[in-house]
Fold this sequence. Notes:
The protein is of the alpha+beta class. Helices cover 32% and strands 26% of the residues.
Amino acid sequence: MTDPRTTQLAQNLVKHSCKVQPGERVLLDMFDTPDEVAIQLIRAVRAAGGIPHLHLHHGRVTREMLSGATEPQYEAIGKFALEEMQAMDCYIAVRGGHNSFENSGVPAENMSLAQRLMRPSIDERVNHTRWCVLRWPTPAMAQGAGMSTEAFEDFYFRCCLADYSSLRVAMDKLAARMMRTDRVHIVGPGTDLTFSIKGMPAIPCSGELNIPDGEVFSAPVRDSVNGVVSYTAPSLYRGIPFEGVKLRFENGKIVEAHCDGKDAELNAILDSDEGARYVGEFALGVNPEVLKPMRDILFDEKIAGSFHFTPGQAYEECDNGNRSQVHWDLVCIQRADYGGGEIYFDGELIRKDGIFTDPELSILNPATH
């Protein structure tokens, strides 16, 4: 029996997130998800008059491909993936996973090679299709969140089926304030960071690109970043868990990088290419229902009272000129329970200990229930 929440989610993705129109081609990319998820999406695409295309992926199989990755192999895969993406109008990816660390142990050079050769198809999808990416709740995700499977599923659907339109007015106001800003100053335990966002767009995200959603993102002027940042949320990148990441910047470039016990792995990622040591995104997390990290960036980057400061590739919507195969959303939670912190725009206090000071932005503050 199909969970009606799955049916509703599929309809939201097709109608609201991607706004599928009759005759449009929609690539459905399913990673370790139940068949029913793909079935409901296929039905929703057809009901909208679209043409569904389907890929099914399995984590262990993908790991085997990456473990023996070669340049000719991924040149061909990347070429075909780009040609397929160029034929698509919309893209929906639902990413489950039975083991969050499935790709741990895959040689770093193989991961880097695959990311580099798949980057053109990813850029095509991001820049030239209407797309949405989300996770699927699994026991592994529930474990990462420290919750029972049932409780996590309830949390997942509460976040994913939220009425984002109720948050959009405040997010638009925050975006407008960011676009009037030149200098940003962020302080907190182990963090004293300054940069400019002058002339950069600010994009409110309310269910169009990610589910769950709830962030306003921009990008720093590439060479303007100076100071240090200590990220308070754990992260998982290329199948490797990281905690306690600390970066020091000089004129935009990461000149020093440390992580609890994994400096070599951290610096290997930042040495993937020149752009990996510069920042492509600055964003404020504002989803009041998402409160703690679970090593899943689609949730963690939306945490209320957080910001993320992203080494690597810039998005086209906020293009500061940085190019990289890396796009690593590292998150710092600034609520009082994570050590606190302050954000200033042109010298004005905007958020203290994760709480916006403007009453008109209060709906974006952490939920109290």
